[in-house]
Amino acid sequence: MSSPAAAKHILAISGSLRRQSFNTGLLRAAMELAPPGMTITITNIGGFPLYDDDVRLEGYPPVVQAFRDQITAADGLLMACPEYNYSVSGVLKNAIDWASRPPGNLFNEKPVAIVGAATGLFGSIRGQNHLRAILAGLNCNVLHKPEVMVASAASKFDAEGKLTDETARKLIGELLVKLAAT
Ligand SMILES: Cc1cc2nc3c(=O)[nH]c(=O)nc-3n(C[C@H](O)[C@H](O)[C@H](O)COP(=O)(O)O)c2cc1C
What we know:
The chain contains six helices and six strands. By secondary structure, it is of the alpha/beta class. Helix 5 (125-137) links the parallel strand 4 (111-117) and strand 5 (141-142). The longest helix has 15 residues, at 166-180. The radius of gyration is 16 Å and the shape is globular. It starts with 7 loop residues before the first strand and ends with a helix. Bound molecules: flavin mononucleotide. Flavin mononucleotide is lined by residues 16, 18, 21-23, 82-86, 117-120, 122, 153.
């Protein structure tokens, strides 16, 4: 019999700053669906300045340094990826850019799971594909399956912003079990 999985702390990052964001809603669902031993903390990347290498060389802004420290401390990352103009949102890319610079590569071999929601029919898959390419460049260990693409997102959440779609909830649960095993 295998031993119980060690406790895992997952840092969750939403690429949408919108109060009623469906993508942030997926992260709240993940908190409900996390397997035993896994804790998920949703961080906020909204207060970051736009990336500027001159600023970095003077020292990371405190909000950015705190985010970098959260990534270092996490056993894995869960990213909720909206699709903006067929790609990732600017806020998510900006946060990744800040976290990607020296010292070290905070993302190196970091396990990452991706979910995404869009109001259109493609469930953010084009944005997620771009995110996978970005994370490959940072040498993250990105889980390939299951893919969690919540299409027509406006019909999949209730008035309180809770994910009601059973297929999506099942897939998120399966994804988190795989993340726990990494
Ligand atoms: C700037 C912008 C670009 C968008 N581009 C796309 C797109 O390319 N494909 C798509 O399916 N939805 C697109 N949408 C619609 C988003 O899927 C929708 O706004 C969704 O609710 C965003 O995620 P959120 O609910 O987490 O904020 C776009 C929305 C914005 C604001």
